[in-house]
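Posting this for the archive.
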Amino acid sequence: MSRLMLAVIFAALLVPALCLAQAPAESKAAPAATVIPPAKIAWMDLQQVVFSCDEGKIRFAEVQKFVDDKNRENENLRNDLDKMKKQMEVQGSKLTDEALADLQAQIDEKDTYLQRFRQDTEKEIENRRMRVTNYLGKRLQAVLDKVAKEKGLSAILLFNSSRDAWVDPALNLSEEIVKAYNQMYPVAAAKSPAAPPAAAPAATPAKKP
C-alpha cells in the first residue's frame, strides 16, 4: 500500500473521532499553512521514445522481421489453397466421387489451417510487441528518474492527443529522453564490413639484358 493511500485511510479514520471529541478548554492556534512550491511538469511521447531509441529500433526491427517472415508464409499457404480451389473448378467434373471428396477434404483442411495460422500469428505478433514495449518501459523508468532530477521536475507526463490539446514544444522532452536512454543503455555498434584487400602492385616487367 502506498504512502498516499495510508495517509488517506488514516485521515478517514480520524474524522469520526474528531466529531465526537469534546471541545477543548482552550483553543490552540492554527498551524501555519504549508507553502507548496509550484510544480514543474514536462511531457514526453512514449511511442516516439521507444521507437526512436537505439535499443527500440533494434528490438522492433526484430519484431518486424518476424512479421515479414509470417507474411511470406501466409502468402505461400494462400497460394496453395488457391491452386487447390482452381483444380476443383477445372477438374471437378472429371474426377470420381471419391477423388472429388478427397480433394474437397484437403481444401477444407488447408482453409482451416490457414485461418488458425492467421489467428495464432496475430496473437504472437501482438505478444512480441507487448514484450518489447514492457521491456523498454521498465528500463525507461531509470532514464526518466535521471532526467527529472537533472531538470528539477515534479512530473513527466505522457502526451495524449485526446487530452492535451497543445503542449509547449519546449516542454516536450522526448528527444532528450531518447538521448539519455541511449547513453544509459548503449547498444553495440554494428560492425562495418571489412574493407576489401588492397590490390597488389603490378609486377614490373623484367628488363632484357
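Confidence is low (pLDDT under 50) at residues 1-23, 190-209. The first strand starts at residue 41 and ends at 44.
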